[in-house]
Design brief:
It is an enzyme of class 1 (oxidoreductase). Belongs to the radical SAM superfamily. PqqE family. Catalyzes the cross-linking of a glutamate residue and a tyrosine residue in the PqqA protein as part of the biosynthesis of pyrroloquinoline quinone (PQQ). By secondary structure, the protein is of the alpha/beta class. It has a 9-stranded mixed beta sheet. It is globular and about 55 Å long. Bound molecules: iron/sulfur cluster (SF4) and FE2/S2 (inorganic) cluster (FES).
Amino acid sequence: MPQDSTALRLDGQGKPLWLALELTYRCPLKCSWCSNPLDFDDYAERELSTEEWCRVMREARALGALQIGFTGGEPLQRRDLEQLVAYAEQIGLYTNLITSGVGLTDERLLGLKQAGLRQIQLSMQSTDAALTDELVAAKAHQLKLDAARRIKALGMPMVLNMPVGRQNIGQVGAMIEYAAELGAEYLELANLQYYNWALINRDELMPTLAALREAEAVVQAWREKLGKRMAIYYVIPDYYEGRPKACMNGWGAIHLTIAPDGVAMPCQESRSVPGLDFVSVRERPLDWIWNESPLFRKYRGLDWLPEPCRSCDEREKDFGGCRCQAFLLTGDAANTDPACDRSPHHHLMQAAVHSATKPLRFRKPLVKRVAGVMSTAFMED
Ligand code: SF4
Ligand code: FES
């Protein structure tokens, strides 16, 4: 095992292979599981300019980035998206657009295709219009469906992403059929991860283990039926598995996320961990941030691992799990992820699984400013 954790390369050979640009947190939808920060509405005036995003892409490419995901919020809210995609293509990045489909008109889709966009990941919540619209708190189902048809009419590769929670897990079979009819190459049935908005709604969103197993059986039957026609991704969430996910394939290993205001992060949730020293691409070159910054070195590799991970034979499989989840559930990001049944905090996961249901809280601006006083709106609901 390497002695210097910061020298450990995992499988990215020290390169930020996967670059995620959170172009904006603005979005026409109000999903109750949104991964954006709770104070998302504070970022709109601090978004990077087109030139700044291009510089980020250039610097990331020089560091070895290969894949880029334009995400958000809703990246289509940026009028310069086509320009950014064209630049990414020009410098040799494989481009992905991660979108709700709302705003993906014929004109914009054609513009993106002409800019060289390689792949679109479109989110769909349900095959049922009323349920979709209820889940995203907007009239969005038909717009999403239109977007899916447009993407396939232009012959572009499409990943359908279905965020799966208690409200729509019964629709998994119907969604597989729907996705195959629409011509998706890949369907990702993404069991929700409980951070930010999803965490405050966890009691209401989390499906039962029985429902998850039932959906797994449905998925298996469809996999056999469809063969190679459409790949289907589905894994039981770590709340139920007894082992954590190898989150981000390790902190600072291959993933680099840039927030709308230019702050560089090892994962999109890391800003929920207090006490970390975040640096913006407006302040420092990306090379320094990735290779030298205390933030990216803090949990990189294996040497920082606490017990029981330090002496565990699975540490090179999951790197002790997710730092953000460890903080959110135990109050210390350096703890073993409580998803692991060897963690002394595993009871917190079990308690969450048994928790009572509560009403959903839809994404909306939380911070009210009244005569300079700030308060969180959801506390007042
Ligand atoms: Fe992974 Fe740590 Fe659990 Fe071992 S003890 S399985 S390394 S999280
Ligand atoms: Fe941040 Fe897992 S989400 S390390």
